[in-house]
Amino acid sequence: MKVDIYNKSGRKTAKKIELNKSVFCLQPHDHSLYLSVKVELSAKRQGTSSSKNRSDVRGGGAKPWKQKGTGRARVGSTRNPSRVHGGAAFGPQPHKYNLKVNKKTKLLARKSALSYKVSSNNFIVIDNFDMNSNKTKDFLKILSSLKISDKKIILINNAETKNLYLSSRNLENVNTINVTSFSVVDVVNGDFLLIDKTSIEYLNENLN
Questions:
Q1: Which of 115, 113, 157, 112 is nearest to 24 (CA)?
Q2: Which of 10, 115, 137, 154 has its Cβ near the most Cβ atoms within 10 Å?
Q3: Tens-digit pLDDT profile for residues 63-112
Q4: Is residue 92 a contact partner of residue 49, using CB atoms and an 8 Å limit?
Q5: Annotated domain spans of the chain
Q6: How far is 111 from 180, CA to CA, in rounded Å?
């Protein structure tokens, strides 16, 4: 499948680029997407929630009153979970939320995420992202020329330059990532995929 390549002025160039069908044009596998997104979001959780159980609460070492003869219920500690100021019975404790997913499943999910963007025509291939300045207004001009300034954009490039990073970092609806490290969540979370020619070539070869 060949697609057009645009320049930063928003115009089609005379060149086209081939999209590998096994990477960009396969039937998306929704369950692989679900598993990969679940794993990535779980890994971001801190897991630091903590509460004090009855052994962590200060006090309660002595028996409040004798076992028998008072007419009251027997109590061994003032810090048991049923009493005021007692420890939590089944409160949260620090733990990890990390999950695992097979490499093949993760690879299939990345292909599926890219294929969804291609099948819905929510992508543009640009020749390069070379920026002469680091001003945000210059980057916005590129988005306006491509008529995608109102979309939530995932920008994938092969060699991120300092000017590209500085000019796009203040934009809330633009996420700039390198082609070697993008995740499934990055692609799924964006409405529109903006990718350069060298990144397409990299994905054609490495995700095949």
A1: 115
A2: 154
A3: 999 999 999 999 999 999 999 999 999 999 999 999 999 999 999 999 99
A4: yes
A5: 2-45+98-206, 46-96
A6: 14
Query: Residues of 101-139 as b/e, b for ≥16 C-beta within 10 angstroms?
Result: beeebbebbbbbbbbbbbeeebbbbbebbebeebeeeeb
Q: Which two tokens stand for residue 161?
A: 């330059």
CATH class name, domain 2-45+98-206: alpha beta
Give the tens place of pLDDT for each residue, 2-21.
Answer: 999 999 888 999 999 999 99
Q: How buried is 23 (Cβ within 10 angstroms: 0-12 exposed, 13-18 middle, 19+ buried)?
A: buried
Paired tokens of 134: 């680091």
pTM of structure:
0.83
- Nearest in space to 39 (alpha carbons), one of 95, 96, 94, 98: 98
